[in-house]
Amino acid sequence: MSILIKNGYVIYGENLDVIRADVYIEGNRISKVGKNLNIGADYVIDARGKVISPGFINAHTHSPMVLLRGLADDLPLMEWLQSYVWPMERKLKPEHIYWGALLGIIEMIKSGTTAFVDMYFHMEGVAKASEEAGIRAYLSYGMVDLGDEEKRNAEIKETLKLLEFIEKLDSSRIEFFFGPHAPYTCSPELLKWVREKADESKKRITIHINETKDEVKQIKEKYGKTPVEFLDELGFLKSDVTAAHGVWLTDREIEILAKKGVTIVHNPASNMKLGSGVMPLEKLLRAGVNIALGTDGAASNNNLDMIEEMKLVSLLHKVHNLNPTLADARTVFKMATQNGAKALNLDAGAIKEGALADIVVIDFNKPHLRPITNIISHIVYSANGNDVETTIIDGEIVMLDGEVLTIDEEKALDKVQKIVDELR
Ligand SMILES: [Zn+2]
Fold this sequence. Notes:
- This protein has helices at residues 77-90, 94-110, 123-133, 149-169, 188-201, 213-223, 227-233, 251-260, 268-273, 281-287, 306-320, 329-336, 338-344, 375-382, 409-423; strands spanning 2-12, 17-26, 29-34, 43-46, 50-54, 56-61, 113-120, 136-143, 174-180, 204-209, 241-245, 263-266, 290-293, 359-363, 388-393, 396-400, 403-404.
- The protein is an alpha/beta fold.
- The chain has 2 domains: 2-54 and 350-404, Urease, subunit C, domain 1 (Roll); 56-344, Alpha-Beta Barrel (TIM Barrel), CATH 3.20.20.140.
- Strands 1, 2, 3, 4, 5, 14, 15, 16 and 17 form a 9-stranded mixed beta sheet that branches.
- The structure holds zinc ion.
């Protein structure tokens, strides 16, 4: 298929140069960007008054957790988990996970996310939902062994089952990730197994690290070192690791993360809502650490809107440091696009010839996005996910003029409502 998007404001290349141009997509790649392209295409999209942007990459979420949206808010972390989240999660069957993931994916597509990194259980359902919806998905089974050998073997079995399922699916958009949950929930034996298997299979790893003060304390008491030092001494940290949160980090840990080429995924909404803390963004950036952006699960956000997440990053670090020059719009926009692509080793995240066609069209014909002055500023500070009008992933139009073409949205909304009404 070929698509020609005409007359838009194109956010071009890694430097985010805004140019008035057309974008021509052939197959799954961007073939040409230029003024007045006179090329016949199977599909022509008029983007007058609209912005052609790279799609957003949600580098850390738990998509089926939309099933838990609004279940309980405003509680201390342990009470929230023990009294609400975990009891509900114990009731979730594979079918529930499929429908939950589908709802989450529809929400992501509608708000301009073209790829996401996920960690949960019954992940085969998430893979199925991603394949049907046409989104790019990096899927991990969240492993927790708490030092128990029997549990470890069961978790390893689940992980290998997902790996096999995704290999068999043989989709160009769906990739397997190893997903050890965190250093405080996984034994050194399990973490070492993951590293060995990742090296052997050339698959990447996602994990949570240093999210709360409490878990850092736990690790220090148990192993006599900080979580990042602990992981580093296991030989776990390499450039194929995408680690979520990184809120409580020492200077020494930041140095190690930079040296090993680990990507840290910032989740500002979740960190604020759960009262976890403020990530040392400036220090990490100065050290040269690749910082991507994620929404985390909808239970602690409570949506999957990457455009909203960009604004939150910027505002959080400005007020926390009493410095309005920090987390500027361009830096934050790169976190949500090209830095995420770098973490995934994905040839997307920027609009340029030859890159994968993961593109969104954002409608600027709206009062809150006029006058058109600084496009990047408008997207980060004024827009929200609802302004995304068209989403193209891997050269396929997945949403057009606000309508998801791949999935019956109404059916998914109804089905999720029924599931949650029955489970509560
Ligand atoms: Zn998470």
